[in-house]
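User: Can you recover a sequence for this backbone? Please restate the input before giving your answer.

Assistant: Of course. Working from this structure:
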């Protein structure tokens, strides 16, 4: 007599679009294809191996290329993930997503999901119709990971290219290659290999069930924009954002978030109007230290610590749903 098969976990796949759901004109089309074409049921059907990894079912949340991701979709997604994970018969959630803003959605959910159950975000760099498409293996790995005991309590995870990255720290580093997702310097958490996750390190910042953020009753987020730093920088973009009602501004500054002499008065004016100013860096790794090249105590600015500008924007939006106190906001940047 055959042994009874092990009980499979229940994993829900929330589809949002992207290249993983993309189709091209031919098997060699890897540029100039259409993202967000294939619906979630068809995507699941096209990877029959998923049935060996979990009991899967899909929901189409939106069908977009992720450069068009919005705060509204994030709120909808976070609420749906929380509803699903509160159910006894759901063990984990996979989100299929375009790669351009995976790192942002991953951090947003890392701060707003209220569960220890696994949440795994996955995408692909080649469309579903391409030779050696990476979507099917990435999706298979994501479902295995979301159904695994090992992923419980580790925060929102991102898997592509057989690697597992932490939602807080992962970033897209190459415009087109399949190994684009990296956690610069700090390193990824582990591998997907031989049908299971292998973890070697853990994120230490607070996430998911441990955070103070609750989006369940929110239907919008405060306007926070990013101003990019460069030589010969001028204040036009900053002033336009403030005039357009930005409540917070993140500077993706040069170096360690230093501020051009001609920009300091402009940021100071923004702060005097109540805008929260966060200094981040365009460099891609490292700490933006408080009272380094700018006297943040005197200017009443906040520093992003190691968050890149797009992730600092997310934390600032969520922080401002709780407080406008820059000391408390700064503490959040050292906590999450
Ligand atoms: N590889 C991708 O997923 C990129 C496709 C598209 N720009 C998106 O982010 O959705």
């Amino acid at each position: 007599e055959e042994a009874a098969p092990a009980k499979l976990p229940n994993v829900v796949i929330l589809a949002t679009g992207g290249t993983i759901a993309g189709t091209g004109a031919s098997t060699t089309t890897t540029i100039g294809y259409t993202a967000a074409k294939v619906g979630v049921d068809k995507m699941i059907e096209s990877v029959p191996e998923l049935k060996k990894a979990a009991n899967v079912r899909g929901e189409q949340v939106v069908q977009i290329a992720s450069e068009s991701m919005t705060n509204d979709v994030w709120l909808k997604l976070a609420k749906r993930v929380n509803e699903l994970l509160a159910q006894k018969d759901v063990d984990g959630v996979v989100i299929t997503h375009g790669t351009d803003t995976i790192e942002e959605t991953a951090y947003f959910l890392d701060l707003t999901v209220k569960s220890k159950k696994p949440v795994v975000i996955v995408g692909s760099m080649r469309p579903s119709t391409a030779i050696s498409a990476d979507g099917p293996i990435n999706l298979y790995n994501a479902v295995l990971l979301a159904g695994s005991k090992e992923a419980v309590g580790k925060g929102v995870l991102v898997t592509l290219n057989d690697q597992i990255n932490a939602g807080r720290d992962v970033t897209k580093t190459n415009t087109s290659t399949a190994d684009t997702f990296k956690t610069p310097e700090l390193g990824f958490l582990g591998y997907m290999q031989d049908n299971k996750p292998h973890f070697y390190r853990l994120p230490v910042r607070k996430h998911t069930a441990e955070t103070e953020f609750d989006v369940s009753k929110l239907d919008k987020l405060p306007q926070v924009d990013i101003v990019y730093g460069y030589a010969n920088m001028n204040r036009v973009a900053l002033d336009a954002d403030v005039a357009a009602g930005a409540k917070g501004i993140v500077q993706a500054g040069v170096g360690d978030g230093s501020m051009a002499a001609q920009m300091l008065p402009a940021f100071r004016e923004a702060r005097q109007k109540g805008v929260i100013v966060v200094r981040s860096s365009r460099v891609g790794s490292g700490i933006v230290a408080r009272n380094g090249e700018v006297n943040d105590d005197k200017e009443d600015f906040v520093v992003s610590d190691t968050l890149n500008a797009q992730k600092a924007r997310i934390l600032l939006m969520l922080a401002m749903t709780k407080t406008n106190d820059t000391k408390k906001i700064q503490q959040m940047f050292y906590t999450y």
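That completes the design. Residues 287 and 306 are 5 Å apart (CA to CA).
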